[in-house]
Design brief:
With 109 residues, the chain is mainly alpha-helical. It is 45% helix and 9% strand. Strands 2-1-3 form a three-stranded antiparallel sheet. The N and C termini lie far apart (41 Å).
Length: 109
């Protein structure tokens, strides 16, 4: 079963919060904007500031359930402070026989 099935989606955006989706700070909020966010939001933002992380990593580092992190990320995304890049769909991945042919060709040398 795919990890994308029944993944919550942000109502204002068409972004999937898959477990392996990468989250990065896009536009860090100012002090006044952070005051409008809940108490958990700045913690997630600080985790994203240090490096791009997956939703699963954020949940583990923040010690919060994945469902809660997805909701918080939806809030932060709607405010325009992070960007989320989803995993590459399997159809867009390179054909696995190409790397095998390269390896076989290198071994033949």
């Amino acid at each position: 079963m795919s990890s994308v099935a029944n993944v919550p989606r942000s109502p204002a955006c068409d972004v999937r919060f898959d477990l392996i989706a990468l989250v990065a700070v896009d536009d860090a909020p100012g002090t006044a904007e952070e005051a409008l966010l809940g108490p958990e939001h700045p913690g997630l933002l600080s985790l994203c500031r240090s490096e791009t992380q997956s939703v699963a990593e954020l949940a583990a580092d923040a010690d919060l359930p994945v469902g809660v992190v997805r909701v918080l990320l939806g809030d932060i995304l709607e405010a325009g402070h992070v960007r989320v890049s989803g995993p590459v769909p399997p159809a867009q991945l390179p054909d696995e026989r190409i790397p095998r042919e390269v390896i076989d060709g290198l071994r033949a040398l």
